[in-house]
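Lab notebook, bench 4. The sequencing result for the construct came back, and we need a structural model before the next group meeting so we can plan mutations. Quick request posted to the team channel:

Model the 3D structure of this chain.
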Amino acid sequence: SRGVNRPLTRACYRRPMDEDERNLLKACAAAPEDDLPRLVLADWYDEHAQPERAEFVRLQVESARPATAP
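Done. Here's the predicted structure in token form:
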């Protein structure tokens, strides 16, 4: 299928990802029920001048949490 064995890239930049970013994304994929890898990824985005991506990841984490009773 299309995309198999292709290196991960940032579609908006059309260039290979940083190795740290790639590893963080792999950690997120390996633990889909764990928020911690996603929050670490969000922090990484903040530290690498990508605050919009960081906010998006944090919003995804928040929206995936079960609603709590008032």
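The longest helix spans residues 51-64.
Will bring this to the meeting.
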